[in-house]
Amino acid sequence: DQLFLGDQGKIVKSIFKSEFKIYYGVLNKNIGRKSSRTGSQLWHNDGGPGSCVNMMLYLKDVNEDNGPLQIIDWVTSKKIFWYERFNLNKLRRSIDKDQFRKLRSNHIDNIILSENHKNSINTMLGEKGTVIFFSNNTYHRGGYPIDGKDRMVMIFHLYPSIKPLSEIIKNHKSIDKTDGYPNYTDFNENFL
Description:
Largest sheet: 4 strands, antiparallel
Strand order of the largest sheet: 1-7-2-5
Number of strands: 7
Helix content: 25-40%
Strand content: 15-25%
């Protein structure tokens, strides 16, 4: 609560132009291995409601070797979204989830290379304490350190709310991840 009741909270309020709710927060540590990218290390968007803002806090310095977060700009993310919708959705039902994630990430790499969108990728390097805000629906990937290096971050999913955060904190003891995004009941009980 110290993080969000201070300067970071002011930034989040200015983004939403309202109060906000921390839907969940997770500690993420990625350790470099020689294996290929998996899970959130692959290009993806979170696919939650468009009102969600992700916040990442670097708990250690992050350089190219530590697996920095990479974000594709919004204009290119929208193009990729429509490409995926029209060209990959049929495959989503015919192969398992992990195969589909790898296939989609490879397609995104090919789009970026073939259409010369390399400049649309923002690589988020920073010192311990760096805070990064981004829309959950932009395509992004991260946490792929080189062998022998690691990256440790906190990731928060934030939503607008009409209740002040200080009031929400009094009533909720945890920000554990229970689902990918809020359902209708969550909104009624916890956001309004």
